[in-house]
Design goal:
Arc Repressor Mutant, 2 domains, 7-stranded mixed sheet, 3-stranded mixed sheet, 16 strands, globular, binds flavin-adenine dinucleotide
């Protein structure tokens, strides 16, 4: 428990409940509590981010299979991968996957956002989201058309210079690829060096950048080791969350909204357990259907990483 003083059971009522303190959840908790007008509860299934390997970039390898801070999922056999089952790490700790990820600062392609907008998602085109990226950022190279300074998220150049990496990028350019000095600028195409979400050589997870500065607010309350199990509804309105915490079953109520930011795997899982998902599937498992939403839990896309190790 962090933030405000320990709560009695009858006090578990807030304006907003944020489920999952990962990349998105820590930002939501910070922004929703910033003007002091609303009370916010942040629930996180994992522990506090005290493992020292979280905070040094070298710790990436140590956390990749560290079950105390990682869900360590394994896929079903993948038809597109000749039936292979693939290991899927996901952060389970304050900061979520931003506490265990590869630290590369990559926003996504302009075209991907524009396609979302073309499909009817007003407000999600690249021009729409760019001001928010800039507002979030504290770019060590300074502000320009694509970058901002003064935001909570530090972005900096890789400190370590390696002649082999330099030679690799040079070789890529010699084969005809353009050199790209900024993968979050005009285009993502080309070879070059990533920037990282680090500050003075330390990992800038969303817990470090967004949650820590907000922990002193009396209207923000954080519960760790708190696994949300089901959303509760009054009619079609989500009104509460049941969660288990160190062997105890607890319930928190939301006066305004519940924000599910439990990650790409656990968000749809929580929705399905709560009755939001493909009706047939839910019925098979004896779950009362609140909303028949066939898209919940399907169409996941992820990028493959193939590592080549050579002597
Ligand atoms: C090993 C690895 C390397 C990566 N490398 C990079 C990289 O270099 N650059 C990059 O841009 N992206 C990278 N990513 C991806 C990036 O980290 C994620 O896309 C991003 O963190 C997802 O944010 P999120 O808020 O959706 O989920 P997460 O950050 O995963 O947060 C979800 C949170 O919800 C919690 N939670 C889940 N279920 C419940 C529940 N039922 N009750 C309570 N809490 C719950 C989880 O424990 C977690 O803390 C990497 C990811 C991994 C795993």
């Amino acid at each position: 428990m962090e933030g405000s003083a320990a709560l009695r059971e009858q006090d578990l009522e807030f304006d907003y409940i944020v489920v999952g303190a990962g990349s998105a959840g820590c930002v939501l908790a910070n922004r929703l509590s910033s003007d002091g007008r609303h009370t916010v509860l942040l629930l996180e299934a994992g522990p506090k981010d005290t493992n020292i390997w979280i905070h040094v970039p070298l710790g990436y390898g140590k956390l990749f299979k560290e079950k105390t801070v990682n869900w360590m999922y394994q896929t079903e056999p993948e038809p597109g991968l000749d039936g292979r089952s693939v290991f899927q790490p996901r952060g389970k700790v304050l900061g979520g996957s931003s506490s265990i990820n590869g630290l590369l600062y990559v926003r996504g392609q302009h075209e991907d956002y524009d396609r979302w907008r073309q499909r009817g998602n007003i407000g999600w085109g690249y021009d729409d989201v760019l001001p928010y990226f800039k507002r979030a950022e504290n770019q060590s190279r300074g502000a320009d058309t694509y970058h901002g300074t003064g935001g909570p998220l530090p972005v900096s150049d890789w400190r370590h210079e390696d002649p082999l990496s330099e030679a690799f990028v040079k070789a890529a350019v010699e084969t005809g690829l353009p050199f790209n000095g900024d993968f979050n600028g005009a285009s993502q195409e080309g070879a070059g060096f990533f920037q990282t979400t680090t500050r003075r050589g330390r990992r800038a997870s969303s817990a470090v950048s967004y949650l820590r500065p907000a922990l002193g607010r009396s209207n923000l309350h954080v519960e760790t080791d708190a696994l949300a199990q089901r959303l509760l509804f009054e009619g079609r309105r989500a009104s509460g969350v049941t969660f288990s915490q160190r062997g105890r079953q607890r319930t928190a109520r939301a006066r305004k909204e519940i924000l599910v930011s439990s990650g790409a795997y656990n968000s749809p899982q929580l929705l399905q357990l709560s009755g939001i998902g493909p009706a047939d599937l839910l019925k098979q498992h004896g779950i009362d259907v609140v909303l028949d939403a066939p898209g919940v839990g399907s169409d996941l896309q992820d990028h493959l990483q193939v590592r080549i190790v050579m002597r």
